[in-house]
Amino acid sequence: MFSKFFLYLTGINHLKSAIMSKIFLFVGAIILFGTTSCEGETTRTWSVQNNSSITINVTATTYSGNSTSNSIPANESQVIIMEKIDGGTDAEGIPNEEFSSFLITNATGAQTTKSFQNVENWTSTIEQTKKTPSTFEHQYVFTVSDADF
After folding, report:
1. Exposure b/e, 57-73, CB count within 10 A at least 16 = b
2. pTM for this structure?
3. Which of 2, 9, 68, 92 is the most exposed place for a label (fewest CB within 10 A)?
4. Total domain count for the chain?
């Protein structure tokens, strides 16, 4: 009689152990999936800062064919384009390689002498805004002043 009771208890403990193992495996799989499936994202913005004394007009076309035209008052800044890409990265991009054309004129019609193709004319900042999933913001700013016309 005692041996049957012992076998019964052993079977219950084995069943509990099997159930607990499956629960831990399931929870582990959820945690693994949750941390690996969220790849994050990178937001990249290109802006023009107008430090001149008059309004400027910015006309830009990207290599993907998107065009934009912005009028930016004196001493203001505006985003020209913004894009979100899958995957968080802190790798600095090359700000000028996004545009096939980039024209800045002021209210008098003068065209800027400052080249958008010169990487040194862009100010770049990269900020990680979230650790998990990895999320980054890249900002590229092209600044013009009266001396650039």
Report:
1. ebebbbeeeeeeebebe
2. 0.70
3. 2
4. 2
Dihedral sign for Cα 17, 18, 24, 27, please: negative
Whole-number Å distance between alpha carbons of 119 and 24: 52
pLDDT tens readout for residues 54-80: 999 999 999 988 899 999 999 999 999
Tell me: do 50 and 23 sit in the same domain. no
- Whether residue 10 is predicted with pLDDT greater than 80 in this model: the reply is no
> Which residues of the chain form beta strands (DSSP E)?
41-50, 56-62, 67-72, 76-86, 99-106, 122-130, 135-144
3-state class of 111 per DSSP?
Answer: strand
Residue scoring higher pLDDT (118 or 96)? 118
Phi, psi values for residue 65, rounded to 5°: 95, 0
**Which residue matches tokens 């016309």?**
149
Q: Same domain, yes or no, for 79 and 114?
A: yes
